[in-house]
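ugh ok so i messed up the first submission bc i forgot one of the chains. this is the corrected input, ALL of the components this time, i swear. 499 residues overall. if the numbers dont match what u have on ur side tell me asap before i send this to the collaborators (the ones from the other lab, u know who)
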Amino acid sequence: MSELPLNNQSLTPLSGAGGLRIGYYPGCSLEGSSKEYNDSLFAVAEKCNVRLEEIKDWSCCGASAAHNMNHDLAIALPARTLALAEKQGLTEIVVPCAACYSRISSSKLEISSNVATRQKMEKFIDLKLSVDVKILTVFEFLQKYIFPVVDEHIVNKLNQKAACYYGCLYSRPKELATLEQIENPMEMDEVMVKAGATPIDWAFKTECCGAGLSVSRTDIVAKLSGKILEDAADRGAESIVVACPMCHMNLDMRRPEIRKQLKKDINIPVLFITQALGLSMGIPADKLGLNKHYVPTEGVVNCIVKMEA
Amino acid sequence: MHQSTPHHHADTLKSQVEDATGVIISHCYQCGKCTAGCPLHEEMDVMPNQILRMLQLELPGYEDKILSSLSIWLCLACDTCYSRCPQEVKLSQVMDFLRQESIRQDKVNPEAKDILKFHKAFLNSIQMNGKLHEVGLTIDYKLRTLNLIQDVKLVPSMMAKGKLAIFPHQVQNTKEIAKIFKRVNENKAP
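and heres the new structure output, hopefully the right one now
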């Protein structure tokens, strides 16, 4: 419990009624194609009495498009969101999308390590920047705010072999990575152990799924995501767990293209980490958005066993 | 970062890369780990370590070969190369610069045109709304590529699952975002 922030004055006006208050940047995917990641994160936080407060009027991080096309824009777009978070008095924000996390952290790093960059960005966005907001990945958020109280809320054992898939942007580049071992991270595995699953040892934890080529080069995504799925299947995984909307979309929605590429039918469902944790907390599957997936998730739900009181 | 190196000549692509990224190209000793780890090397026309080698040697015509390669557009910025590089060459930042230079000099590989169109449609959506509008992006991309049938069958199911919004989510004042785009682009112009 010692890790909980007690020194945050801006907490006082809002924390009274609903517990801890943490800033929240959903990003575009969590408002659209990965709404279930948003819903399950909120369901888990609510259960643990942690309040997520959305950054008012946040904008898109720029994603791959901005850093591929225009370096300054790639720093300026997240800078606007950082400035708004500061204005709102938030000292910590959780960014559950791996890509948004990477872009916002990268922007923060460039601004805080170079005064000229900061001044240039302040001109571009017409807002002041102090960039002292702490940015949390979903793993850091879970470890810091959910882990201390999670045991009292866990009522189910997921009881299945899970392949924890981290993808690129949590483990690379090293300046932004918060995982302890970048080639064999364990942070998600630890969450799955809490949820009563058995994480498998496998080779594709941090390989790339094809990410932003999902629409423009679906063939490449089918190849890369196919390799990931095949290794998980070969090692007996019953579910794949992810913490990134792009990884989820490529492994779940692109399954027909992957099947064609592999010339075999692999039906392992793909869950967001917060959905898996939510199931172990006894939160109903539809509240966690498990019905929104393309690959059916009933198998995961059927494995669950109630823990004895 | 972005400091210039003490001794470079003229305005070659190599010196531009070094100025813009802070990467020292001569640090690469061609061990080939970047190519070995690259998830896309099988699809590439020039291997990642070869791009660095071409920048090192500066043989005649190297600039065009790099800027018109498909490889720079296939690079996913997954950063496996950089994370395994014993010399810590930030190849992903070099790639970002090369892509932008390839657009500037109008040398984008014809096979990469759809990838570029997707990025353009994506930025266009943000410029208009402040947030990505997935339906708008899809229509814009389709009109740019005339690839009208692809992924259309996904639309009804995504709608049914509540994964697609017909109308865009927007920031309160979209002009603010348009202004950021404008200021950034004006600053870039010589």
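quick check: Chain B has two domains: 13-108, 111-188. that seems consistent at least. Residues 111-188 of chain B form one domain.
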